[in-house]
Structures are given as C-alpha cells and as structure tokens.
TrEMBL record, chain A:
Residues 23-209 form the Electron transfer flavoprotein alpha/beta-subunit N-terminal domain. Gene3D superfamilies: HUPs (3.40.50.620). Transmembrane segments: none annotated. This is Electron transfer flavoprotein subunit beta. Belongs to the ETF beta-subunit/FixA family. CDD domains: ETF_beta (cd01714). Pfam families: ETF (PF01012).
TrEMBL record, chain B:
The keyword Transport applies. It holds the Pfam family ETF_alpha. Residues 3-192 form the Electron transfer flavoprotein alpha/beta-subunit N-terminal domain. The lineage of its organism: Bacteria, Pseudomonadati, Bacteroidota, Cytophagia, Cytophagales. Gene3D superfamilies: HUPs, TPP-binding domain. Binds 1 FAD per dimer. Belongs to the ETF alpha-subunit/FixB family. One of its GO terms (biological process) is fatty acid beta-oxidation using acyl-CoA dehydrogenase. It comes from Solirubrum puertoriconensis. Keywords: Electron transport, FAD, Flavoprotein, Transport. SMART domains: ETF. It comes from the Bacteria. This is Electron transfer flavoprotein subunit alpha. InterPro entries: DHS-like_NAD/FAD-binding_dom (IPR029035), ETF_a/b_N (IPR014730), ETF_a/FixB (IPR001308), ETF_asu_C (IPR014731), Rossmann-like_a/b/a_fold (IPR014729). GO terms for molecular function: electron transfer activity; flavin adenine dinucleotide binding.
Length: 245, 325
C-alpha cells in the first residue's frame, strides 16, 4: 500500500497573529512554524497502517525551501521519503493541482491530509484533489481502518457521524481522535537526515483566488464584572442589555 | 445568470445555517440584478422548502430520491453541478459546514469556479474585483479575498449573516433530477449515527453555548453545566483537556484544534482562556466568563465576567434563568 501524506507548514498554535504594516502578509518575526496539527494525525495514521499492511509513506509539501525543517521532522516521525514541490503555495486550487500531479505520477493508493490548515482554514484542498483525480474524498474522518483495498471510515457530519466504506484510491482528511500523533525519537531524527527528499517544480494553472488584505478582529470593549454574590444580575443584563437571551 | 443556494435539510426542516445561506444568496442576487434559486439536499418537506420564499428565494429544486436523504459527497456534487448548469448560476452559496465545504471544493474544480470558505460578510465589488471577507488563522484574523474566476462559490460561516424573514412570501418548489448513477454513491454511508444533544441543540448550530473547562474538576459535576444549558436552550461544549481525558465527548471540544463556534452567547465556566481556546470562540457575539482567578486571561476577551467559584455561581445563574422565565 502506498500512502501519500500532505503536510502544510503553519504558525505554531500559540502564535499571536500580527501582520506587516501594509496588512498584506503575516508578520513572521519570531513566529515558529510547525507541521499543521491536523496533518500530524494523517502522518501518524499512515505510519501505523504501513506497519500493519506493509508499503511506504511519502510526505509531500508544496512550499519554498524554508519548509524543509518540518519535512525532515515528518521523516523523523517515520515517513520513508519526501517530495517538496518548490513553489509559493498561492492558493488552495494551486496547491491541489500540485498534490494531484504528484499523486498521479506516483500511483498512490491512499492520499492523507489534515482536516484543514490552521492558517488559511480552507477545508478544501482534499475535495479539490479528489475531484482532480476523479476519486472519492472522505472529509473529515475521525477513524480510518483498512482491510485489503477497502477502507472503513467514520466521517463527521454536523451533529453526528457516518460510517463510510470506500475502495482505494481515495483521499481522506484526518482529525482527532484518529490516533495519538507520534513525536520524533532520537533514532528517527538521526535516520531522517539521510532519507530521500526530492524537490520538483510546479505544474498546472495559477491560483483561483488572491488575498488582498488581512485584518485583526475588533477589540473587546472591556469586561463588565458582576459580583458573585449577585450572580443572578448577570442573567438580567444578558436579557435587557446584551439582548441575547 | 443567476445565484444558486444550497440548502441543507434535516428531519423535514431547513437547517438554521441554511436559512442564513438562502438570505445571503438572495441579497447577492439582488445586488447582481437577478434571482436566487435553491437546491435542497437532505430530508426536506415541501412546506419548509416553500417557506424559503421568506428568505428571498424564488424557486426551490428538490430531488426526492431516497438515497439523497443522507450526505453522499459524490452524488450531492453531481446534483448541485447539474442544478448550477440548468440555472446558469454564476454565484453558488452554501453553508460552511462539513457538507457544504466537502461539496463546494469538488464543485470548484468541476465548474472551474473560485471558492472562498468561512465567509463572514456579503461580497463587495471594488475596481471590478469580486471580494469577500473570510475568517483566517483559526479565528485570530480575517482576510479579504478576490475571487478571480467568472464563477464563484461562497461558503458562509454560521451566524455571521442575519436570516431574512419576509413573512408571507413563498417559493415555488420544483422536482429536479440529475440522472445519478450507482457510481455517484461510492461514498454513501453504511450507517449514520447521530449524537445525543444536551438540551437538544447540536453545537455547530447552536446560538447559545455553555462550556466547561478543567475548573469543573470532573465529569460528575457536569450537571451544573447541563442544567444552565437546558434552562437557556443552549448547547454544551468544553475545552480540549476536558475531552482529552474523556470527561466529555471529543465533538464538544472547541478551539483552534476543535470546532470553531460563533454563537450569540458563549458562557465559559472554569476555562482559563488559552490562546488556542479563544481562537475557537472569539467570534461569539457576547462572551461571559466565570472563573475564580481574577487574572485568568479569558477575562480580557470577555464582555461580562464573574470572579467566583463555578460550584457556587452556576446554580445561582440557572435559578435566575428559571425565575426570569
Ligand atoms: C507566502 C504565502 C502566501 C499565500 N498567499 C495566499 C493567497 O494569496 N491566497 C490564498 O488563498 N492562500 C494563500 N496562501 C495559503 C496557501 O496557499 C495555502 O496553503 C493553501 O491555500 C491551502 O490552504 P487551505 O487552508 O485552503 O488548506 P485546507 O484545505 O484547509 O488544507 C487541508 C489539507 O491540505 C493539505 N495542504 C494544505 N496546504 C498544503 C501545502 N502547501 N502542501 C501540502 N499539503 C497541503 C494539508 O494536509 C491540509 O491539512 C499563502 C501561503 C503562503 C505561505
Ligand atoms: C497544539 C495545541 C492545540 C490546542 N488546541 C486547543 C483547543 O482547540 N481548545 C482548547 O480548549 N485548548 C486547546 N489547547 C490547550 C490549551 O493550550 C489549554 O491548555 C487549555 O485550553 C486549557 O483548558 P482549561 O482552560 O479547561 O484548563 P486550565 O488552563 O487548567 O484552566 C482551568 C481554569 O479554571 C479555573 N478554575 C479552577 N477551579 C475553579 C472553580 N472552582 N471555579 C471557577 N474557576 C475555576 C482556573 O482559575 C483556571 O483558569 C491546545 C494546546 C496545544 C498545544
């Protein structure tokens, strides 16, 4: 079984987001970039399934050279090899085309992604890749089990879940509680250095969207404190002042 | 040219988020000088579809095929693409739900459309550019995005648009079929399992949420959260560590790595207000924080606060809601 795991390079979840003075780009000063947390579920589950079924795990990132430390980290966690499509990931459609091209070329059986990137929150690359390849996408999945070429998945829907069965090849976007994401160990870090990381150039068309400006949410007015002794006053304020109940 | 809105239905009713989607689509149609047609998916009743006239929809298409009552990504995509072709839809509006975005991303490729998810405002046209504002950085920021292609698909975030209610208006309901093949049902569910909802309100649809953190001390104390939620007609939620240790189910965990909610009212009980938690809730209209530590960072993001012990404060609040009626 050949697994392809797509990882995105995102600001650490503790990052206080700020932008450049023209509000056109993220202010990267002091920001630490990590593997998108959802993609860690995809990576670990692919490694677990490989251990169970045999095969290989390839990680793929569409990004410039500064993403390589996180690609190496994925190799240290247990992927066998890596591909970086050397391009600025200008939008989801552009990224999806790159992933689809690599997937087609390599004949992968299962293409795993995270539920969404925590920076652009698109929740769309997986659907686009499935459509570009003409194969099913199951998103977001909380469980992925495989037996032969058949996968059984739990797909989350609003208020519940669906049990879905699909045949390879397919795309899956992963979220908790699929597995316990692994962290690299010493041996993994040592071997990662020598694992193959292939750099390829981008193909396909350009982006379908373009960000023109970023903005921070409006600041809160400040908190109105109510004395714990008279907690019931809060309910009256919510009814009469805030008008939300 | 027209606007097509995708309306999700459940148990015969149009979901609240889809009423917002319909209203959004109707307003876009009006600005473009055209009409808005809806395509309904899920289990719908004729009466509820006709009442979409109140949200400004003139016509509703519905395929009554039994297999379409549950979400099937392949079949829904084909159905909606066929409706978009028939109606020559230039703009397609859907909910920013798991269903909406799963279908929207496939449609974007199939129809060569530009897609924006997590959209929080009506679009605007500036210098010939069609621009939408969307949430980014998991609730920490917004971005303006230009949709470059002729066709545009917009997934509207829940509770960011006020639903229209033009009493008395009805939409014309037409049956619609897209010649679906068995292969379109490759991802049809074998089984659908719905969760039990405290207070009967699913968290992603709720407009009031009562949420508990580690300060609640243990699952045995959750009746305090549930009692207040029931009295308010709210859904319950929790912080990540609470679901990590199985005090509460994972689907209740809100935050940057859980669900993002944007209710009118979010009441946080014994939650410190870590940056990852705030990211998931800070687009709530009103935030109330109950915490015994006056220095808890959550107070900085709150509209109302009580510095106090949840075990003392929560029963008082529930009592006050009941008294107010
Ligand atoms: C410098 C820079 C500028 C950018 N400018 C824009 C812009 O102008 N407009 C815009 O829309 N976006 C822009 N992006 C965002 C970038 O293109 C996103 O990676 C892309 O839009 C996909 O994000 P998403 O949130 O849509 O992905 P989602 O659909 O939320 O991601 C789902 C999954 O897809 C996979 N995935 C996502 N991105 C990648 C990737 N790069 N490589 C491999 N796998 C991936 C991951 O598994 C992820 O969990 C920019 C990014 C950078 C770094
Ligand atoms: C990669 C990553 C992703 C994360 N994603 C998320 C996420 O999506 N969502 C999320 O919630 N967290 C997330 N976290 C965890 C986050 O950093 C915090 O650890 C977490 O939100 C803290 O949960 P808490 O507020 O319930 O607990 P604590 O931080 O332990 O806070 C408990 C609070 O309860 C108060 N308290 C205690 N007793 C009482 C009492 N009797 N009465 C009143 N108040 C009381 C305390 O003063 C304290 O403020 C993430 C962390 C990481 C590293």
């Amino acid at each position: 079984m050949k697994f392809l795991v797509c990882i995105s390079n995102v600001p650490d979840t503790t990052t206080k987001i700020t932008f450049t003075p023209d509000n056109k780009e993220l202010n990267k000063a002091g920001v630490q970039f990590v593997i998108n947390p959802w993609d860690e579920y995809a990576l670990t589950r692919a490694i677990e399934l490989k251990e169970q079924l045999g095969g290989s795990v390839t990680v793929l990132n569409v990004g410039e050279a500064d993403t390589e430390p996180n690609i190496r980290k994925a190799l240290a966690i247990g992927a066998d090899d890596a591909i970086r499509v050397n391009a600025k990931p200008t939008d989801a459609f552009f990224v999806a085309q790159q992933i689809a091209a690599v997937a087609k070329d390599g004949g992968y059986d299962v293409i795993l992604m995270g539920k969404e990137s925590i920076d652009y929150n698109g929740f769309q690359v997986h659907g686009m890749v499935g459509e570009l390849l003409g194969i099913p996408t199951v998103a977001p999945a909380m469980k992925l089990d495989m037996s032969g070429n058949t996968a059984t998945l739990e797909r989350e829907i609003e208020g519940g879940k669906e049990i879905v069965e699909v045949q390879t090849p397919f795309v899956v976007s992963c979220q908790e509680p699929m597995c316990e994401p692994r962290i690299p160990n010493m041996r993994g870090i040592m071997t990662a250095r020598t694992k193959p990381l292939k750099v390829v150039e981008a193909t396909g068309q350009g982006a379908a969207t373009q960000v023109t400006e970023y903005a921070l949410p409006p600041k809160k007015q400040g908190v109105k404190l109510i004395d714990a002794e008279n907690a019931g006053d809060l309910i009256r304020l919510l009814r009469n002042e805030a008008k939300v109940i | 040219m027209s606007v097509l809105v995708v309306v999700e239905c459940d148990k015969g009713e149009v979901k609240k988020s889809s009423l917002e989607v319909a209203s959004y689509g109707a307003q876009v149609a009006q600005a473009l000088g055209t009409t808005a047609t809806a395509i309904a998916v899920g289990e719908a009743s004729e009466a509820s579809l006709a009442s979409l006239g109140e949200q400004g929809i003139s016509k509703v298409l519905y395929d009554n095929e039994a297999r379409l009552k549950e979400f099937v990504n392949g079949a829904y995509t084909k159905l909606i693409a066929a409706a978009a072709e028939q109606e020559q839809a230039q703009v397609i509006v859907l909910a920013n739900s798991n269903i909406g975005t799963s279908v929207g991303s496939r449609l974007a490729v199939r129809l060569q459309a530009s897609l924006a998810t997590n959209v929080v405002e009506l679009p605007r046209v500036e210098g010939g550019n069609f621009i939408v504002k969307r949430g980014a950085y998991s609730g920490k920021a917004f971005s303006d995005v230009v949709l470059l292609n002729d066709r545009k698909i917009i997934a509207v975030k829940k509770n960011s648009i006020e639903a229209l209610h033009n009493a008395g208006q009805t939409a014309q309901v037409q049956s619609f079929s897209a010649q679906l093949a068995d292969t379109d049902f490759a991802d049809a569910p074998k089984q659908v399992i719905m969760q039990e909802q405290t207070g009967g309100v699913p968290l992603p649809e709720a407009d009031k949420v009562v949420s508990g953190g580690r300060g609640m001390k243990g699952p045995e104390n959750w009746h305090l959260i549930e009692d207040l939620a029931k009295a308010l007609g709210a859904a319950t939620a929790c912080s990540k560590p609470v679901s990590d240790v199985d005090w509460r189910p994972h689907h209740e965990h809100v935050g940057q790595t859980g669900i993002t909610v944007s209710p009118n009212l979010y009441i946080a009980c014994g939650i410190s207000g870590a940056i990852q938690h705030l990211a998931g809730v800070n687009s709530s209209k009103v935030i109330v924080v109950i915490n015994k530590d006056p220095e808890a960072p959550f107070f900085k993001a709150a509209d109302y606060g009580i510095v106090g012990d949840v075990f003392d404060v929560l029963p008082k609040l529930t009592q006050a809601v009941k008294e107010l009626g």
